[in-house]
Amino acid sequence: MEEKLMYLCMEQLGKDKVSRGESELYRHSRDESSHPFREPDFVFFPENTDDVVKVLLLANEHGIAVTPFGAGSGLEGQSIPMKKGISLNFDRMNNVVEFAPEDLMITVEPGMTRLQLNDFVNRHGLYFPIDPGADASIGGMVATNASGTTAVRYGSMRDQVLDLEVVLANGDVIHTGSKAKKSSSGYHLNGIFTGSEGTLGVITKVTVKLHGIPEKVLAARCTFPTPGECAEAAHVVLASGIQLMRMELVDAESIKQVNEYGNYSFPEAHSLFFEFAGSPNIVEEEASVVEELMHELGCQNWERANSSKERSDLWKARHELAYAYKHIKGKVSSGSDVCVPISKLAEMVVFGRELVEECGLIGGVFGHVGDGNFHTLIMYDPTNQLEYEKTEEINGKLALKAIALGGTCTGEHGVGLGKMKYQVAEHGKAVEWMKSMKVLFDPKGILNPEKMFY
Amino acid sequence: MEEKLMYLCMEQLGKDKVSRGESELYRHSRDESSHPFREPDFVFFPENTDDVVKVLLLANEHGIAVTPFGAGSGLEGQSIPMKKGISLNFDRMNNVVEFAPEDLMITVEPGMTRLQLNDFVNRHGLYFPIDPGADASIGGMVATNASGTTAVRYGSMRDQVLDLEVVLANGDVIHTGSKAKKSSSGYHLNGIFTGSEGTLGVITKVTVKLHGIPEKVLAARCTFPTPGECAEAAHVVLASGIQLMRMELVDAESIKQVNEYGNYSFPEAHSLFFEFAGSPNIVEEEASVVEELMHELGCQNWERANSSKERSDLWKARHELAYAYKHIKGKVSSGSDVCVPISKLAEMVVFGRELVEECGLIGGVFGHVGDGNFHTLIMYDPTNQLEYEKTEEINGKLALKAIALGGTCTGEHGVGLGKMKYQVAEHGKAVEWMKSMKVLFDPKGILNPEKMFY
After folding, report:
1. Which residues from B are below 8 Å from A239, CB to CB?
2. For chain A, which domains are there?
């Protein structure tokens, strides 16, 4: 059947849009997580919305799975084609559709990456601030409701999305919002399609807000004796009402990995990294207030990155963190992504650090403490079942504790394969209603099957 | 049947929770709009979630309509019980459930009003910023995705809601979010229940973000020769990236009404009202920058409200605007609520002002120009069919033009009865999917029937 469908696609859409070359099947079998790989039957490269409509109509008719694939930088296996079938690759749909600088707004195709988007708008004094670290595709970022280091200021993708064009399983093309900055019209489809991980429809256009590039950016960092004190300090900064651009916690072990991997020489202690951005006077004042607060709390090693080189090094180091761990040979990483109310952060961070230490594997605690979201990252030997089980146990303990504290099992990576098992614990009876919504939009279950819910 | 249900409710829930007294039926037959009144069969006053569950189970079993009623301050008839049945009044569910100042978060019952909420949190240095003018109930504000003068800074209710407890038509009690500041877990139910106007479920608890009370607040106003120039000036301020607290346009006719009604003596010209809020130095700097920008654009009558009395007068006048028009005897008001991309605002405002002038009735143009949302308000004689038709024609022209420009027919009042006819123009095929979602959650159509969609 898959074979037949492939030939139908080739016939109706053109041979050059379909591939089952070995290297393509390999590339589309995985993402940056360590979830088990699975190859699609073939890869389809749509060039416009109409191509997507045609493929979905065929796939829906024949009951073949369709799994969208952006940049492959996901961390929860969202783009792995669990039921094989078609991998829908958006490399060729990476154009600007409409740019409206006067409205601080742009519409792009989903295959455009975050850096491509910024390259395009930066020269107009604008930027798109959501920054998950990787050069993810905009479509993938919408699908997982990605965020990252700037969420403390700009929220998640959901806060930036004004409108989506989505192709549904039956071929319907709908818009989920409008170009107005706010609306009370109809049900908020933007909200449910953002973060739906390709399970409700396939995103073919994305309209997002843009922001003015801040006139001045200033970075700083300091250290504390324990990760708990770092989290407490982060809480104090937030309560002060200062509008940070970024505030990150990186524990001593992670600093050590970054120093080794990247040839940096940061003090190997539990650290807070700050970024302030805005007009020069305001930024200076904010940095001074935070410096004073940190000293009152007993911080060590307060240091401002004065040059733009120093600043970029500082944040480059933070972004390289996950990769820094990956230089450890023979190991793969397993990560958690919990997010809790800010007042519970210190407790969670201490708990996370203790779990990592107890398990005897190398790992770190770091994350976007400005919004209560942080990660543990533990390196394990994928051929060693015991090590794998240890990491899974830790991830489970973290997820369930976060949920018990009123938080979530995933702040920004999404559910994919790794967080399915915590959905009922987190959402209770609402999960049944989410599954009913899935059935409503995709009655044959062709859209990214075996993801999000059991 | 309704009679039988009322006795069942009395029996199962207590006599004192049910009323069909004349004055109660009258009060629950209307809101602040001029949509036709309709009385419910009886009014039910739940005291907790369990009461709501029991009533919905009974109503669903017997197919009786249930229409939630908050403060009755809606502007689109959302709380009018079109199919009679039960009006669900939340006066007795107005308590604080959980207050977490350290997390800038509070959970309240839906009957608590905006001012009650602020009374409670203000003494802790916190406030809830969404301000639709009226002292609406929090539940009603969630249901309509309300916003108002502070949306330019804080967005709409949807941006402030972290979690809702909702009772569904079948009696299921679900939570739509969590207490984490961000989440990528599950479908974003917060988004669809906020703004669903009681058509998908009944809100029984609301968790919202709180914010620190700004240290300093500064107000100012200026005038321009035309409403178009006001809108252009608003656009320039927004593009400057300055974080305003409020920015409102009030046209000359509306200033005249406010002066007459409230004994003010504002210059009777097309005006922009500003509010800046934050730490004192920053606020001073922001006001100076805007003052300079306005003078460059040729504004007249720039004036700062220096004392807190002056400032409160200025904003009191703005809030009294809709009521100011209502002192015109024998007339009722008809309003539009469009929201467009910022660059289209000047065009829309000029268009709106022209329509008002052409129609020969008294009316004004004013609104939250910081987010592209503005209102026309036209006074007509409800016994004069021709006048009524004129206002409807104007509302229709405004809605359709806003939609054609990429905007929405309702920025903050909601759909209710008045904007149903523009849903297909705005949302196209997506309306069918919204209706399917309605059927999914409320298969018997008991929840606020005959609203939002035909």
Report:
1. 102, 104, 212
2. 2-89 (3.30.43.10), 96-212 (3.30.465.10), 216-323 (3.30.70.2190), 327-422 (3.30.70.2740)
